[in-house]
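The material for today's practical consists of a large collection of protein records. Getting from the letters to the tokens is the skill we practise here. To make this concrete, we reproduce a full record directly below:
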Amino acid sequence: MVRFLTASRYHRRMPRLSIIVPIYNVESYVGQCLESIRNQTFQDWECLLFSDGSKDGSINIMRSFAAEDDRFKIIEKQNEGYGTTCNRGIDMARGEWISIVEPDDFIDPHMYERLLSDTTSENGTVDIVKGSYWLYYDGRDGYTDALQSPNLANAMPARRMEFSLEEFPEPFYHHPSIWSAVYRKEFLDGQNKSSMKIRFKPIPGGGWADNPFFAQTMVLADRIVWTPGKYYYYRQTNPGASTFIKDYHLPFDRLRDMREFLEGQHVSKEIMRVFYSREFDYVTSVIGEYGFDDKNEDVRALIREVFESMDRKEVFLMADRLRPEFLDYYMDFMGDSYEIRNHADVPQPALSVVLFTHDARSWVVDTFEAYSSFKNLPVEFIVVDAGSQDSTVTVAKEFAQKDKRFIIKEMDTDATTPELVDAAMNVARGEYIVFVPSHFTVGEGFLRAALAGARRSHADVALLDAGNIHCDYLIEKLAAKGVPAKAFMDDPRSVRGPIYGPFTATEIPELAISTDRDYSWHKIYRTAFLRDSAITAGEHDIFDNLLEFGGRALLASGNIAFLDMKTGWDVRDIQRKQIPSSFWLALEKPIPYTSEPDTDIDSVLSLGIWLKDNNLYETYEQSYLNTLLSSFMFGVSTRYSPEGIVDFLERYLGETEKQLDIRAHGALYFYDIDAFNAFQKITLHDRSLDLWLMERALRDEDIIFARDKEIQDIHRSARFMFGEKAIDLVKTISPTSLIARAQEQARKLKRG
């Protein structure tokens, strides 16, 4: 039974705004709420006050406001819950725009004036105008009232902007805050992307019904306008609020509702990743904030339902938006679903594969699954962990329990690279050994061919190459030793091409060290040779290439073999790169300097010192300087941010330029003509760095447009607007202003 009060005094004409207030037992707060509505500087509104079966004095307060202002309309009804009540309000609303205010909150006097100040767009129909809010705490125990800015306000731009969720999904990461917004009524009634009538879930009580409503409105909106002001005061200190849940099913039920909707709308992977972030928040809230036991079978089943609905690879792409402990929990929880094949220990492994790990949670499962699938290679996998603080070791032990070929060596966080390599060498039983960073998976077929080639050539060190780029040089050296050229004719039936060798380092001095700069897994070593020669890693070695370790091994080897591995390497870098290697994109997105890739230039410089200390520098100078040139250009070319480029140049350019002395050596001295030319552009004269940066910006803009599918129309996207703002900011900062100018010039050239 619904009863209307003050109907005769109700405004006859259509108001611009309808405000819906669902009220249930909030007599302590509702007066403040309604007073804040009455005090709005925007006057053209109606306010629908729903008494949802209140049993306290709320109705009397409502009546007093309705008696003084006929824009307030009271609807008394039996208790139906938040969602059903809001739906009644939307159906009854006569306004062009709709707002929902919760009765224990209150609003700034300028809220609706600001939100409704500009509801037009040249790019589509504005369906939602959204603002920020304050977290409000009542003064208690001698303290005054307190305000806190929510994450939404801190993450969104400090200016007005318009967007769709596909263009800019940031708001979806945060609290629904459906009440700090106004919605076009026709949009809610079906004038949207899916012609869908948007309403709340009709469930008892509060029931977190705002969450599915939030998802539907954000996804189906054509244009959303953001205004950065904080106009809504969201009370955090009402003990009766729905945020204080007693039933752990509520968040999981609402996640299920949202998941079904999003999957039905076929939203982008980016939006699904954002939704996964919300799911993680809900799960951790249930077991953390609300204190429910995740050892409870029912709770555990609900968590598993959430995690199994996620695409694991997409989850790993979110690592920059998830707290490490979230991913840790996910990995540990889902551990029993790993695809681990049972394998017995190999008494006499032919090959030891050393996998270096450190906080590798986001890719290590894929790595271990790939290696656990090996069937036909007598192999052991030595996992050397450098003090991971996440679940990497937990995952490794899960595999080691079923696949006895996995051996786990746990080291301290401060363990040096030489100590980590020595730990692997101390337990390795394979005839040959290969070192692989944990984010690389190397196929079984590739390793079998490499092992066969190393054995056939009796190599101390076998260098693996596809279509060996040095074959002319190597054939010339072998021809001088009387080896006929026909020995290097390729057999198309072979999974591996010719073997070039044997060599000692002194027989190929121009090449010996430069061959070492490739990835660490480009080299396979005879284990006994490494031990007998007491080969150690350098302090500056990185797992990706172990340059000093490899260089020392090559110079000590009595038998170096080059294996032409042809094609079909079956090698993947599965590390989840959060950010494309793009200079221009760095000015659009806040890329932390720590996200830039490691470089090996410190280990190259250290190797140069070692060569001089051992009176080997003159013999291997050309090979070493080519390595230095390649390392330097790789380092500067892979810096994402202007600050990163400047820092790298300041640290390494002077020493590198001094050692290379390209004027003295000449172009023919260097193998990599592209690197040589790029280095000249950086160093020859004052304008050369400008030229190189501008060329790079043009190149990277092409990469962005090809790879970044999120930016469909860069001129209209939020990211582009952010980029423009970033460029303006960077231009004011020295010395990065040089880089920003080059980037801006390149963009102008690109666009005509």
